[in-house]
Design goal:
alpha+beta, twelve-stranded antiparallel barrel, Porin, single chain, 1 helix
């Protein structure tokens, strides 16, 4: 069964508001100099944390007891990532050249599809896995921050 969400992020905000049929469903919020993000969707909470100096280790954990749930590993060019949650692997990737569409899939096909319209967007999910849904939005936010930092450094 397909579940549809929308997300929006105000300009200069560190919070993604996630809604389902115009009702608040959750959020994804960057904290701690953007090295950590905490997400909640349908009451399920998750913590994303970057470990290591060169942003190599991306951990997914339970914020209540800090137990490790999974990890995110990017390919060399950061155009794809493998999300591992409780020993199950999923592939995250951009679906178009403009990076406004991306998806998460496994061997059975697409599980979550995302679309961005600048500071808001849509999520179509074919899974009830809140952690997986939040992971796709987190990866996009991380890559957006990284692109903005690179653009700022190049302009200097």
């Amino acid at each position: 069964m397909e579940t549809q969400f929308t997300w929006k992020k105000k300009f200069f905000s560190n919070i993604y508001d996630i809604s389902r049929y115009e009702n608040v469903a959750g959020e994804l919020k960057s904290i701690g100099w953007k090295r950590k993000s905490i997400g909640e969707l349908n009451g399920k909470k998750v913590l994303f944390e970057i470990k290591g100096f060169f942003d190599k280790n991306f951990l997914i954990s339970n914020p209540d007891d800090n137990s490790l749930i999974g990890k995110i590993v990017f390919n060399t060019w950061r155009t794809k990532a493998t999300i591992t949650i409780l020993e199950k692997a999923y592939t995250w990737q951009y679906d178009n050249l403009f990076h406004s569409k991306w998806s998460i899939s496994n061997e059975n096909g697409n599980l979550v599809k995302y679309e961005s319209h600048f500071k808001n967007g849509d999520i179509n999910s074919y899974t009830n896995d809140e952690i997986l849904i939040l992971s796709g939005l987190y990866i996009r936010e991380y890559l957006q921050q990284r692109a903005a930092a690179s653009a700022s450094a190049a302009a200097s």
